[in-house]
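Technical note accompanying the year-one report. For the benefit of new consortium partners, we illustrate the data format agreed upon in the data management plan: each record pairs a sequence with a structure-token string. No post-processing was applied to the example shown here.
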Amino acid sequence: MDINIVAYAVAAIVVGGVLVGFKRAGYERSGRGYPLLLASFPLYYWVFALYAADYQALANELVVGAAFIALAWWAYKLSGARSLVILAMAFIGHGVYDIIHFYVFTNPVAPGWWPEFCGTIDIVLGLYMLWLANLNGKTALPAQ
């Protein structure tokens, strides 16, 4: 698989827009924005599988996606640094999943540029969550 510089560049723009947009809209402080974003990521793989009419892939993606949705729910129910660390690990884990997806499943349904695009977004968001969790010993998210 060739490196897709355009996918990386577009991902950088998108993740920058997400971070700025979430901060401006107050989603970051609400404690709900990033868990909801994480919970939405499996939907892409479900749509890819449905579009390809690959129901075995859909079944696989439903199982994997359920794990990420559960992590998002867990992070949402917690607060502060604990929530951010769970989100960070889940976002980074999803980025790794994006990267290895083509190697794990024999019939990958995602587009060829997806690992670079989505993996970059996931990993940058995860690193940002870690940064927030460690920001001067404080968190940017209020206790719920």
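Partners are asked to follow this layout when depositing records. Helices lie at 5-25, 27-30, 33-51, 55-77, 80-104, 114-134.
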